């Protein structure tokens, strides 16, 4: 009986040592993990923030519907370029460049469409109001591109080409407007000339006056009776 009690006590003591050892091992392992944890959480958090920023920029760019607002969203993205590229994260840099290219391509298409809409057809060229409206729109577009060409275009030559195109369309529209105004003025000038000619002719041609014929003696006059008897 005493041997069994001693054996049981020995087993219990052994179990306590084992449990204690396991607990100590687990505790030490957890501490070592915390102390030696790779410093990647901050980088991953920054990467997520940059990716989120880039995607949000693209979403905002697509939501706005005017050229000026789209340019503003593009400038916001470009302001973060140095911060994003300095991290040397290939996936972030690739995403940034892809979104940047997509925005610039969209802006170029929008500008080309605006130019086409204000390049007047032969029918529209007869309407001076449409010509003036197109002129104002192109002047505004020209001023915007001159100011923001380094933002809109990656290559300076692309901006110069677009400005040349706008200038050529403006010249053509101005020539059409001048021709239309001259054409409208022509009929009134011709009418005035005709009126002046008629007035001159009326002054130089004397009226034809028919002379008055002398009164003829009435052959049916009554003869006195005494003359008839003679």
Low-confidence stretches: 33-43, 214-230
Protein structure class: mainly alpha
The gross shape turns out to be: rod-shaped
- Could you state the order of secondary-structure elements as H and E? HHHHHHHH
Number of strands: 0
Largest sheet: none
The percentage helix is over 70%
Q: For the CA atoms, what is the radius of gyration?
A: 51 Å
Mean pLDDT: 75
Q: Counting H and I runs of at least 4 residues, what is the number of helices?
A: 8
* End-to-end C-alpha gap: 214 Å
Strand content: under 5%
Signal peptide: 1-26
Biased composition (Polar residues): 218-230
Keywords: Signal
Region (Disordered): 182-230
Description:
It comes from Gemella bergeri ATCC 700627. The chain has about 230 residues and is an all-alpha fold. It has a domain at about 50-175. It has helices at about 1-35, 40-65, 65-80, 80-85, 90-115, 130-150, 155-205, 225-230. The longest helix has about 50 residues, at about 155-205.
Notable traits:
single chain; about 230 residues; mainly alpha; about 0% strand; disordered C terminus; Signal peptide protein, YSIRK family; signal
Which SSEs are present, and which pair or pack?
Blueprint: H1 2-35, H2 41-63, H3 67-79, H4 81-85, H5 90-117, H6 128-152, H7 156-204, H8 225-229
Helix pairs in contact: 2-3, 2-5, 3-5, 3-6, 5-6, 6-7
Brief synopsis:
The protein is mostly helical.
């Amino acid at each position: 009986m005493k041997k069994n009690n001693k054996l049981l006590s020995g087993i219990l003591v052994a179990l306590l040592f084992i449990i204690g050892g396991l607990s100590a091992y687990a505790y030490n392992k957890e501490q070592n993990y915390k102390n030696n944890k790779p410093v990647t959480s901050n980088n991953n958090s920054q990467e997520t923030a940059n990716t989120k920023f880039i995607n949000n920029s693209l979403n905002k760019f697509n939501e706005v519907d005017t050229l000026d607002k789209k340019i503003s969203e593009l400038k916001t993205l470009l302001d973060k370029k140095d911060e994003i590229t300095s991290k040397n994260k290939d996936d972030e840099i690739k995403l940034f460049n892809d979104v940047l290219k997509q925005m610039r391509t969209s802006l170029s298409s929008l500008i080309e469409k605006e130019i086409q809409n204000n390049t007047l057809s032969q029918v529209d060229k007869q309407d001076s109001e449409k010509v003036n409206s197109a002129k104002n729109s192109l002047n505004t577009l020209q001023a915007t591109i001159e100011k923001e060409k380094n933002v809109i275009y990656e290559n300076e030559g692309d901006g110069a080409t677009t400005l040349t195109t706008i200038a050529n369309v403006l010249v053509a529209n101005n020539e059409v407007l001048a021709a239309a105004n001259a054409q409208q003025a022509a009929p009134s000038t011709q009418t005035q000339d005709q009126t002046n000619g008629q007035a001159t002719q009326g002054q130089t041609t004397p009226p034809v006056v028919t002379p008055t014929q002398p009164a003829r003696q009435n052959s049916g006059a009554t003869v006195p009776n005494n003359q008839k008897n003679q």
